[in-house]
Amino acid sequence: MKQIITLLIICFSSISFSQEKDKVQELAIKRANDYVYEGNNLIEEDFVLAEMEYRKAISEESSSVAGTYNLANAYIKNGNAPEALFRLEQAAKAATSKNEKHKAFHNMGNVLMQNEKCKEAVEAYKNALRNNPIDDETRYNLSVAKACAEEQKQQEDQNKDDQNDENQEDKDNKEDQENKDQEGDNEEDQNDQGEDEQKEDDKNDDDGKPEDDKKDEGKEGEDKKEKPQQPKPQPGQLSPQQIKNLLEAMNNQEQKVQEKMNAEKQKGVIIKTDKDW
After folding, report:
1. Containing H/E element for 234?
2. Among 136, 151, 80, which Cα is nearest to 106's?
3. Could you report the per-residue pLDDT of 69-89, keeping only the tens digit for each?
4. Over 60: is that where the pLDDT of 267 sits?
5. Cβ atoms of 140 and 110 closer than 8 Å
6. Do 56 and 33 contact (CB within 8 A), yes or no?
7. CA angle, corner 200, sides to 198 and 202, nearest 5?
8. Binning pLDDT at 50, 70 and 90, where does residue 226 land?
9. In this structure, are residues 70 and 54 in contact, taking their beta carbons and an 8 Å threshold?
10. How far apart are CA 204 and CA 208, in angstroms?
11. What is the per-residue pLDDT for 274?
12. pLDDT confidence of 164, banded at 50, 70, 90?
């Protein structure tokens, strides 16, 4: 009997505790909704005060989808996209009905589209349609987001191609410059080699003779300059050597005649002679 009474007491206590917990939760939800209501009334006049009311609602009831969702919409109107997306994600996770999830994902897609994140917006609208397949507005927004995402992809591919072409052009220009530099180095080496060969040629004469031979030839040239060259006989004239020989012959002849005349004188006879030239 005592055991039965004990079990009845425990059951009664559990039921009372559960009922008390439900009352506390109901009061928290009621206060959270009141804060949301106040926020909605202030949002058009004072964003800061409205934000405070929405935050009170979330603090009072962390699972308050209305507080999180309305705070996200307040950030959208204020142009704070990062905070809006953060709160919409919270609302989508906390939502217990498909209608609430649909609204959260739909607005998430709108924020992403406004910030030109078309690929991410496509996924958000798809999630919205999974929770409400018959919403025409979401379906239309999805088609727009798909077209935008495709255009962005094509633009990205074009930018990659342009970047690759630019990189290839830079590479070609670099190779051309390296080739020019190499040609310049080779030309400089050839010039240096030519200067060395010119210096070596300066040491040697045109026939490749060493410096000592050039000195000897130079000396011979000086000797030739010191000795006057014999004039060449003109046609019809006797050369100097021929004149010299003729004079010697005349002297010899004259000597002979003189000797003969001396002999004739001794005999007393004078002999007349003719010049042979």
Report:
1. none
2. 136
3. 999 999 998 899 999 999 999
4. no
5. no
6. no
7. 70
8. low
9. yes
10. 5
11. 38
12. confident
The closest of 271, 251, 253 to 261, measured between CA atoms, is 271
Q: pLDDT tens digit string along 107-154?
A: 999 999 999 999 999 999 999 999 999 999 999 999 999 999 999 999
Both tokens of 210, joined, read 């060493």
Closest Cα to residue 52, out of 66, 34, 71?
71
Work out the burial of residue 33: count CB atoms within 10 Å of its CB; fewer than 13 is exposed, 13-18 middle, 19 or more buried. middle
Rounded Cα–Cα distance for residues 55 and 74 (Å): 11
Q: Give CA–CA dist 176/257, Å, rounded.
A: 102
Where do the H-state alpha helices sit in the chain?
2-42, 47-60, 65-78, 81-94, 98-114, 118-131, 136-203, 211-226, 240-267
Beta-carbon contacts of 61 under 8 Å, excluding residues fewer than 6 positions away, are 28, 29, 31, 32, 67
Backbone angles phi, psi at 99, to 5 degrees: -65, -40
The owner of tokens 């704070």 is 80
The pLDDT, as a whole number, for residue 88 is 94
Q: Which of 187, 184, 164 is nearest to 176 (CA)?
A: 184
Please tell me the distance from the alpha carbon of residue 252 to that of residue 259, in angstroms, as a whole number. Answer: 11
Residue tagged 């939502």 (tokens): 95
